[in-house]
Amino acid sequence: MIKVENLVKTFGAKRAVDDISFNIERGEVLGFLGPNGAGKSTTMRIITGYYPPTAGRVTVGGFDIVENPIEAKRLMGYLPENAPGYADMTVHGFLSFAAEIRGLYGDARKKAVHKAVETCSLEGVLYQTIDTLSKGFKHRTCLAQSIVHDPDILVLDEPTDGLDPNQKHEARSLIKRMGEKKAIIFSTHILEEVEQACTRVIIIDRGKIVANGTPQELKSRSKEGRLDDVFRSITLPDTVLA
Amino acid sequence: MNSWAIIKAISKRELGGYFTSPVAYVFLVIFLLLTGFFTFTVGNFFERGEASLVSFFTWHPWLYLFLVPAAGMRLWSEERRIGTLELLLTMPVTTWQAIVGKFLASWIFLLLALALTFPVWITVNWLGSPDNGIIITGYVGSALLAGAYLAISCMTSAMTRNQVISFIVSVMICLFLILAGFTPVTDLLVRWANPVVVQTIASFSVMTHFEAFQRGVIDVRDVIFFVSLIGFALFTTGVVIRGHRAG
Ligand SMILES: Nc1ncnc2c1ncn2[C@@H]1O[C@H](COP(=O)(O)OP(=O)(O)O)[C@@H](O)[C@H]1O
Ligand SMILES: [Mg+2]
Q1: What pLDDT does residue B185 have?
Q2: Do B89 and A49 touch (CB under 8 A)?
Q3: Looking at CA atoms only, how far is residue B1 from chain A in angstroms?
């Protein structure tokens, strides 16, 4: 459903994304793994149509994100890094707004908001404004916004960032559950997350894909069968970069 | 889904944003107080001994100079600062729809402020018998002037995450648009420059085009001036926003 071909993004002299290609099909949960600054967010911003690519092509559900951005964006839900939201809006107002932009009105909108609220357990904070929410609730509110129109494709940038262990666990099982019927790509730098929720893993380092396979395949590359050994052996630590 | 439905959704959200914070009410009160102060005190409304709103409208270019950028400075800088710009523009929304939606919401807010000056109109009708036609064209001119300043504030707001910088830059641009055709300045300029040059510069000034409305004349050319100024500033806003994303 998502097709990324030879994608490049440069900022000045910096190649943030350097010739990467991959596909995601329905029923797949792709873990996008990499150290900070690897280019995960930049890739996701290109897929969702926020940044235009410097070179290469992204198609979403058959629509080119540069040539048919609106059609492509309709098929996606997106949780940006840091889960932004309109500070002075209530959770309910914010979700209604997202649903309206997605073309839902009247009863359909009410139902969609209700379902997203239920899925993300937001009942307790429905009429609280977003700036008064704890980090966990803020994240869930933005996640709810991304699934309010029940999209076929989900792009989640560090969906478990800032959550406590229980919330992290819940978020992972939610992603896994939704992944059965959707195509999901989510980024993280937490390895255990990938093992629990993903059907496939891509490791990216300094803009390039350095590994692509199932969690089992990647684990088998290390003597002890541990993902973090593999991760450490193929990505450079920050200290080396600096 | 049609464009207007999206624009409406964005406008509604933006307008709601004004009224959920105290800023809107503070703004309205300050606007009305200043309008009253300039009209009745500085403008010598009563001493003029005539039933008109000249002393009311004359001050609008100067009043708006600070108030409109104050109302418009957060439009885009805030979205960029808190990251909702990324959210909005990855929804099935074109940059153009987002710009028009947000602009319209703020303009409606300013028109509401302007509409709340109706007691001045009632007062002048109660005291005498003014030419209400002139007053209506006066309001039309004032609404267009506010729209033009607002579009400029929109543009400067897209240029920076910092609201203070956005405010100062738009005040500077609006001030230039006033002074280029402000009679004391043009009188000074003709001493050094060719009158044709001075006139050309003045034709880009909001003052030149605002004045006719106060005389009860709605000239198509003046309307076109304000509408193109708004169009140009909003177009530039789009270019600036696309520029950020291109990196
Ligand atoms: N808008 C931008 N302007 C300039 N450089 C950027 C921009 N966005 C990202 N970068 C750079 O691109 C690289 C990749 O960043 P990012 O995609 O955010 O990494 P990740 O999400 O994997 O941590 C980083 O070195 C970052 O500094
Ligand atoms: Mg990131």
Answers
A1: 82
A2: yes
A3: 6
Nearest residue of chain B to residue A10 (CA atoms): B247
pLDDT tens track for A85-129: 999 999 999 999 999 999 999 999 999 999 999 999 999 999 999
Could you tell me the residue ranges of all domains in chain B?
Answer: 3-246
Task: Parse chain A into domains and list their residue ranges.
Answer: 1-75+152-161+171-242, 82-151
Domain A1-75+152-161+171-242, CATH among 3.40.50.300, 2.30.170.40, 3.40.50.800, 3.10.105.10: 3.40.50.300
| B90 contact residues in A (CB cutoff 8 A) | 45, 48-50, 73, 76, 78, 80
What pLDDT is attached to residue B70?
Answer: 93
Answer for the pair A4, A48: CB distance below 8 angstroms, yes or no: no
Residue with the nearest Cα to atom 9 of ligand 1?
A: A42
Would you give the end-to-end CA distance of chain B in angstroms?
A: 30
Q: Kindly provide the ipTM of the predicted complex, given to two decimals.
A: 0.91
As a whole number, mean pLDDT of residues B52-62 equals 87
Are A101 and B93 in contact (CB < 8 Å)? Answer: yes
Which tokens sit at B104? 């319209």
- The model's pLDDT over A204-215, given as tens digits with 9 standing for 90+, comes to 999 999 989 888
CA angle A58, A12, A59 (to 5 degrees): 5
